[in-house]
């Protein structure tokens, strides 16, 4: 009885796994925002120490976001801009254009 039930569960998992992979079109690669964060950070003007603190805070936010589904819901460029904005607001750094 146990072996039969275990086999049924195993088959069900395999079917659902196949459906999941087809749904995401076998795309298992997620691009992270770190590269964009660093690229955008080079465009910031202002006190170097303050900019460095802002980037470190934004980097921490990206790290924290990896524990969520944010990377699956938004493009990495959007996440990079969002964490920079949040870090700027929290550090009260006046970001110039």
TrEMBL record:
Gene3D superfamilies: Cyclin-like. It comes from the Eukaryota. One of its GO terms (molecular function) is cyclin-dependent protein serine/threonine kinase regulator activity. InterPro entries: Cyclin-like_sf, Cyclin/Ssn8. Keywords: Cyclin. One of its GO terms (biological process) is regulation of transcription by RNA polymerase II. This is Cyclin-like domain-containing protein. The keyword Secreted does not apply.
